Every structure is written in C-alpha cells, then in structure tokens.
Amino acid sequence: MIFSRRWSTMCFALPILLCLGCFQQTVSDVPARRAARGETIPLQIKAREFPVQIEPIPGLEDCVTDKQLLDVLSASLPLWHPPTVPSLIHEFRLWGQSCDFSKEVVGGQGRTGSFLRDTLLSDSLCKEHTTPFGNHFLIDSPYGIHVVRAGSKDAVDFRAEGHYGQLLMVLAETSTPLSTPVSTDTGSTGTIANLLQDAIFRYSPGNEQEFITVALACWLAPNHSWEDQYGDKHTFDDLAVRLTNMQLGEGCCGGCHAPYALTILLRVNELYPIISKGTKRKIETRLKEISAALERAESENGRWDNKWPMNGASIHMYEDETMDRINVMGHHLEWIALVPVSLRPSKETIIKIVTLLHHSVNDLPPMSRRSRTFKSLLPCSHAARALCLFRRVDPNQVWWDAWNGQKIKKTNKGYEYVPVDSPPNKISPSITLSMESP
After folding, report:
1. How far apart are CA 75 and CA 383, in angstroms?
2. What is the pTM of this model?
3. Contact (CB, 8 A) for 84 and 375
4. How wide is the angle at C-alpha 308 spanned by C-alphas 322 and 161, nearest 5°?
5. CA–CA gap between residue 171 and residue 145 (Å, rounded)
6. Bridging pattern class, strands 111-112 and 100-101
7. 333 and 383 in contact (C-beta within 8 Å)?
8. DSSP track, 82-141
9. For 242, what's the count of Cα atoms within 13 Å in the CB-facing half-sphere?
10. Is 79 helix (H, G, I), strand (E, B) or coil?
C-alpha cells in the first residue's frame, strides 16, 4: 500500500520534473542567455529571399497631372553631397536600385542605385561616403549585425537610421534580396538575414512598431509569428492590436506611419494569412476612422497638416509649416495609394490634397537656400513616392523620359516641368545644383 502511494506520487511528479527540466534547458539556451555568456548566435531565422511586394490599387491615376508629378519628383533629387544616412535611406526608398543620376544632373560624383545600396550595407563605405565622420552605422552583434539607431548610445549625429526597422523596411520595399552582403565596423561580413535576425531578437512591444511591422510582414510571410531574444513569442495580430490602439497622431512622423503599417499588414494578408479575421476587421475599422478624420480635416481646414487628427493636438516635426504640411500629406497619400478603395478618403478630397501638396512643394525656398540642410528631401521624397504610386509608374522612368524629352529645365528653384508649348531647354552642366551638406 505504501509502495502504491509512493508510485502514484512519482507518477504525478515525474511529468512536472521533466517539464521543469525542459524549461530550464530552454531558458539557458535563449539568445539573450547565450549572448550574456559571450556566444555568437548562428543564423537561424527563416525568411524570404525576396520580400513581398505590394502594388498600388488602381483608380487614382487621374488624380495627378504630369506637372504635379514631375515638379515633386524634381524636388526629391539626390542633390546633397556628401549625403547623410537619413537622406540616403529616403533616396533609396524613392529611386531604388535602378537609379543612375550623372554628376551633370545632381552634382558630386552622381548617384546610382548600387551606390545607395552598397553605402547603406557597408560600414566602411558609409563612413567614407556620408557625413559626419568618425562613428559607425553597422556594428557586430551577438544576434547578427546591428543597425545603429538615432538616439541610441552608439549613434552620433546623422549616421544612424531614424527608426527601429527603418533600413529593413526600405530594403524590403526596394526588393533587395535577403542574401545581399553586409559588412560591419570590424570588417566582418554577413547578409541582410543577419540584420533581420538582430532586429527580430531585439523586438519588444515597447519599441516603435510602425517600421518593423512593415519589415517583418514583407520578410517573414507566410510565417505569422517570431520569437525575441528571451524566447517570447509575438504575432502579427499582436502588432496590429498595438497599432490600432494608438491615438490619432501618435507615433512616428505625426502618426502617419501607423496607417501605412496597417495597410501593409492588410495587403500582405491578402497574399498570405498572417493575421486573423477578427484582426483584419479591426484594421479595416481603424483605417476607416483615419480616413474619416482626414475628410474632416480637409473639410474644416482645407488641408492636411500637423493638426490633421482634429483632436486639438499640434504635431511639429520640422518646425517649418510648409515642410510639416508636405510631410503629413505625402505620408498619408502613400498608404492611401495602397489601401483598398472602400477604406480611402473620397477621391474628391484626394484630388484637392494632391493639388495642395504640389503648391506646398513649390512654396519651398530655392535649392540654393536649402543647401544648409538635407531635410527638405525627406518629406518631398514621401510626396513623390505617393504620386508615383498613384500613377503606378517607376520614378526613374518618368523623370528620365521627361529629361530626355527636354520637358524639364533648371532654374534657381531647382528643376521644373516645362509645359508642352514652351521651347525646349538644353541643360547646361555649368549650372548644376550641388547641395553641400554642413
């Protein structure tokens, strides 16, 4: 009888002890513990070689005129030499891997897609080609390769990505393969997969969610979950809930990146089921709410600016009214170009905003007066990308067709579209606008 009771106790306790043993083994092997022991974590993530690409939704082509498109594109040319990392990231996102601007067009040594990509993926080239000098952008990490982020202890001035996951998002949007080489401050080499693993292991709900959401959705689909450095599991449903719970205007760039991230989740989910049906409905409801807020802002103020949430808050990003307005309009038009028609603001409102956006870009001071800062490029590049998405065209193709057709001329403002009935203007290399960074 005693033997029977002891055996019953052992039978009950054995599974618990086994589970505890497994738990202890698992805890000791999580990336954070291994990193604390000085180990380097081998590459173990599973991701796509080519990230998911999201195409714009048809129906907005007639909202943008040729002049509007070319004027805004021209305001986004890579004219700053030497560039900063933020300007390179925005240039690469807009112009992509196929761009090829000669020095006669943009000054300096010109700018190509390979220059943009290679500079952003090589710490030594980044130090050589960008300003300021002396600090690193890509550093060794026990989890892979770490991208220095603005505001962190490793960051100095502008040689850093502005947001967690920003570089990975842009690499995804430009369809850069996962196996593309990356090199660090010590000269060690890896690939974009090493960047992605480091970002995944460092994921936390307390970090910015907007950029990393886009990056993970495009690189990880059809997987719908991942584990961080502590072994905690996260899902795209979790991400969506955090984004939908944010207040209007909260988050990166005056709250304009949250609807973009939600739109990408929705569109990737059309191809691969990475979120639940309930989460999908939450995203759709949230995007409708944001569109309604934008409709109200246009109706009452005639524009979308840093007060677009209509909740009394005023969001300042550049401390310049015109640039803030371009920033808000360009960012919102980007996700509107990608979102299903039923979730957009009205087409009438969109046309009014595109017109105001064009006027605002033309209200910027001449390029010669913008030479003290690269920052006008950032909001203009979002605006230009949005209008290209509306027209469903490649920025390079459009700009170079206009250039070769002599439909663009140089003035003290920069480059401008020439109406069809105007005489052609032969571009002279002697008046190249080369913006020198401070």
Report:
1. 10
2. 0.89
3. no
4. 65
5. 15
6. antiparallel
7. yes
8. SPPHHHHHHHHHHH-TT-EE-HHHHSBTBEEHHHHHHHHHBHHHHHHHSSS-S--SEEEE
9. 18
10. coil
Q: pLDDT of 73-126, one tens digit each?
A: 999 999 988 999 999 999 999 999 999 999 989 989 999 999 999 999 999 999
Q: What is the DSSP string of 219-283?
A: HHTT--EEE-TTS-EEEHHHHHHHHHTSPTT-SHHHHTHHHHHHHHHHHHHHHS--S-HHHHHHH
Please give the Cα distance from 363 to 394 (Å, whole number). 25
- Which residue is associated with the tokens 């030497």? 82
Structure token pair of residue 117: 């990509």
The two beta strands, 233-235 and 225-227, are antiparallel
Report pLDDT digits (tens) over 62-73.
999 999 999 999
Q: How far apart are the first and last CA of the chain?
A: 88
Q: Residue 47 is encoded by which pair of tokens?
A: 């991701």
The residue with tokens 């173990």 is: 44
Residue 183 in 3-state DSSP?
Answer: strand
Q: Which residues contact 40 (CB under 8 A, 6 or more apart)?
A: 142
